[in-house]
């Protein structure tokens, strides 16, 4: 009889813990849902097959502001040098990214450089307001990091699909 009560107590405890865990998991996350893709992890590779590398965490919070945050990080680039993050889009949703109208990203409408340290690593928190775009708008988007002095791309991404969230 004691064994049956112990099993019942353990089962009830596990049930309560599971409900608590699943209840917490169902709370609305601070970032947009992933289907369709509202948030991206953009990987930037060296265009010359060198050691350069970058990452852009492209995030749009679940709020009415429609601001996308671009937490940008680069490494193994020229030390103590300035670069810019650029993007090009197209609305032909074929996963090919044919857009060539490169827009330099920054703090809102103000372009912002990414300056590397003496080891060739740089980080910058950028953002862009997408309020002019209707919720649900989709586009193919790709990124590049270009040298400020020469304008030549040093890092580039593949093609990603993005959907404007609310």
What order do the helices and strands come in, and which of them pair?
Elements: H1 2-25, E1 40-46, E2 53-59, E3 67-75, E4 82-90, E5 103-104, E6 106-107, E7 110-111, E8 113-115, E9 122-129, E10 138-147, E11 153-157, E12 160-163
Antiparallel strand pairs: 1-2, 1-11, 2-3, 3-9, 4-5, 4-8, 4-10, 6-7, 10-11, 10-12
Architecture overview:
- The chain is mainly beta and 166 residues long.
- Helices cover 14% and strands 41% of the residues.
- The chain contains 1 helix and 12 strands.
- Strands 1, 2, 3, 4, 5, 8, 9, 10, 11 and 12 form a 10-stranded antiparallel β-sheet that branches.
- Strand 10 and strand 11 (153-157) form a beta hairpin.
- The model is unreliable at 1-29 (pLDDT under 50).
Features:
166 residues, mainly beta, 12 strands, 14% helix, disordered N terminus
* Largest sheet, strands/sense/barrel: 10 strands, antiparallel
Overall mean pLDDT score? 83
Task: Determine the N-to-C terminus distance.
Answer: 56 Å
Question: Total helix count?
Answer: 1
The count of strands amounts to 12
Q: Provide the helix percentage.
A: 10-25%
Which spans have pLDDT < 50 for at least 5 consecutive residues?
A: 1-29
The run of helices and strands is HEEEEEEEEEEEE
Structural class: mainly beta
Please report which band the strand proportion falls in: under 5%, 5-15%, 15-25%, 25-35%, 35-45% or over 45%: 35-45%
User: What is the rounded Rg?
Assistant: 22 Å
């Amino acid at each position: 009889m004691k064994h049956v009560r112990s099993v019942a107590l353990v089962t009830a405890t596990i049930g309560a813990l599971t409900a608590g865990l699943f209840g917490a998991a169902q709370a609305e996350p601070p970032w947009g849902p992933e289907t369709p893709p509202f948030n991206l992890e953009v990987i930037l590779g060296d265009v010359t097959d060198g050691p350069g590398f970058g990452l852009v965490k492209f995030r749009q919070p679940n709020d009415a502001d429609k601001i996308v945050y671009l937490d940008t990080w680069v490494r193994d680039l020229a030390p103590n040098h300035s670069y810019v993050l650029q993007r090009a889009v197209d609305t032909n949703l074929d996963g090919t990214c044919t857009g060539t109208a490169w827009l330099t990203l920054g703090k809102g409408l103000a372009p912002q450089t990414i300056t590397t340290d003496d080891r060739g690593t740089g980080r910058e928190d950028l953002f862009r307001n997408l309020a002019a775009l209707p919720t649900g708008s989709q586009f193919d988007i790709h990124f590049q990091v270009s040298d400020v002095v020469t304008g030549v791309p040093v890092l580039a991404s593949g093609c990603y699909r993005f959907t404007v969230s609310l």
